[in-house]
Amino acid sequence: MNKTPTLAAVCLALAAFSTGSHAHEKHGAKPKAAATAAPEQKPWGIAGKPGAVRRTIDIAMADDMSFTPSVIEVREGDTIRLRLKNKGKELHELVLGTEAEIANHAALMKKHPEMEHDEPWMVHVPAGKTGDMVWTFNRAGDFDFACLVKDHFELGMAGRIRVLAATSKP
Asked: Which of 25, 80, 81, 109 is the most buried (most CB within 10 A)?
């Protein structure tokens, strides 16, 4: 009996593998492949390099659906480490974006509550844990952040980042 796989079996295995590789990751650790992809410029900035961090901002996440602080000011061009501390007993996340992007993503999450996703502008933090995001805010303006887990956004778990123009005075 020939033990080499048939061409059809190899094709089916490759098709199954390639289909799975396009799925988003579950709320959890980022896969190594995503960490090595080229950063994508977004209206609210771009993934930053840890060596370029100018300051760290601690943000507490709580089960009363709050971020503390909920309003942050940074300067255009700053690379910031957002250190997220989940003080609750539920999973929370911080998703950066424009008001429209956050609203669209929240609506998509409502339609597909088990949707798996993981992007550099998202950090998922299990209960009692800490997570970091390093982000370069290279565009001035007001941007939003929110927790899109379950109904947390609808319950008010959101905040704002004001990125002051590099030429403006503090």
From this structure: 80
C-alpha 108/C-alpha 81 separation (Å) is 27
Sequential DSSP letters for 99-142: HHHHHHHHHHHHH-TT-----TTEEEE-TT-EEEEEEEE-S-EE
Please indicate, yes or no, if residue 4 is contained in any of the structural domains.
no
Check if the beta carbon of residue 121 is closer than 8 Å to that of residue 96: yes
Domain presence at residue 8: no
Count structural domains, the chain.
Answer: 1
Residues counted in the chain: 170
DSSP lists the bridge partners of residue 71 as 160
pLDDT at position 115 is 72
